[in-house]
Specification:
Layout lengths: L1 H4 L6 H7 L7 H9 L10 H12 L7 H5 L2 H13 L4 H18 L6 H15 L9 H12 L10 H8 L1 H8 L1 E3 L2 H24 L6 H22 L3 E3 L6 H11 L1 H4 L5 H28 L4 E4 L6 E5 L4 E5 L8
Antiparallel strand pairs: 1-2, 3-4, 4-5
């Protein structure tokens, strides 16, 4: 990737397909976030599947030896994840892909949630801090919500399900409510597929063929168009009012709506949904009463850092240490 695109004006390709998110300009990252497309800038199941998809088609073959060629996709996707620095979302995707491939080769059918659970355990054993990582939490949550979809014909519900499921993390963290996330994600699917094909073709063919020029031009147009749309129209709203504990409790029932549908009986689903909404409402009232009576901000000591504190009013936070500079949060 660096050999073909390292000197290019657009760094979107290195950021999306090489895991070098820092190479992407801040205004491009911000524009993607405002449109609800921030997940495209991190190595996820979408990227792992894009790398392995061509070879996974061999799993449809009846001949055992032809089917075994699909292992190339598993190996290539592992190399892609390792090259990107082993991000949690990438490891999760590759582990689920590996489990699926092993079961398909052996003629067995592994339930999707089994792959999901095994990947969660392995990733947590690999790094005990993963459950507290913001990069891991939405990744597993969004994947679980998509696995709960009734059938593949519901592909048009994928962006809506994933965005709603992770709302109580993303809105609270980034303070942005992207109103245009649904049409933006529907258009992003074929757009990223074209970009992936251009980048993949340019890596397979000699540089003299000039395919990398098309890929760079396409990536430049995508980045510039996203920034232009984000600046031209107010397609997002501030999530500041939803960034505190009360906002978290407001978004929690909607984010858990997909989990309610895992309950087999419809009557129990309604009961569980009612209990969840009632509990959140009661907690919202309690938290609001506590905040109204609070006369001054709350100070917390930061674990893991010597003589560090953080002050919060329930919406924003500022931290500092007994040192020469403040702690960025």
């Amino acid at each position: 990737l660096r050999a073909n695109f390292g000197d290019a004006d657009s760094q979107l390709i290195l950021g999306v397909f090489g895991g070098e998110r820092k190479a992407i300009e801040h205004k491009v990252t911000e524009a993607f976030g405002q449109l609800g497309l921030a997940h495209l800038l991190s190595v996820s199941g979408y990227h792992v599947g894009l790398v392995a998809s061509i070879f996974l088609l061999f799993l449809r073959c009846q001949n055992r030896w032809h089917k075994s060629i699909s292992v190339v996709g598993v190996i290539l996707s592992l190399g892609f994840v390792v090259a990107c620095g082993n991000p949690v979302s990438g490891l999760r995707s590759w582990l689920m892909l590996l489990l699926f491939w092993c079961s398909a080769i052996r003629g067995r059918r592994l339930k999707p949630f089994e792959c999901w659970g095994i990947a969660a355990v392995v990733v947590a054993l690999w790094d005990v801090h993963v459950p507290n990582s913001l990069g891991a939490q939405p990744s597993f949550w969004a994947t679980g919500s998509l696995l709960a979809l009734p059938n593949l014909s519901s592909w048009w519900r994928v962006p809506l399900r994933a965005q709603c499921a992770t709302a109580f993390w993303t809105v609270k963290t980034f303070n942005v409510v992207p109103w245009a996330f649904y049409p933006a994600n529907l258009l992003a699917g074929p757009t990223m597929l074209v970009l992936g094909l251009l980048v993949g073709t340019s890596l397979l063919l000699p540089i003299s063929c000039g395919v990398e020029t098309w890929a760079v031009a396409f990536a430049d147009g995508l980045a510039g168009g996203t920034v232009w749309i984000a600046e031209k129209w107010p397609l997002s709203a501030s999530g500041q009012q939803l960034s505190g504990r009360v906002g978290f409790l407001i978004l929690l029932p909607f984010s858990l709506h997909w989990a309610v549908h895992l309950v087999p009986e419809k009557g129990r689903r309604r009961l569980l949904w009612a209990i969840l909404c009632l509990s959140s409402t009661l907690l919202i009232g309690l938290e609001t009463a506590i905040q109204v009576r609070r006369d001054e901000p709350v100070h917390h000591a930061l674990k893991g850092r010597e003589r560090c504190w953080v002050v919060t009013d329930g919406h924003g936070a500022c931290g500092w240490c007994n040192g020469p500079s403040q702690v960025p949060l």
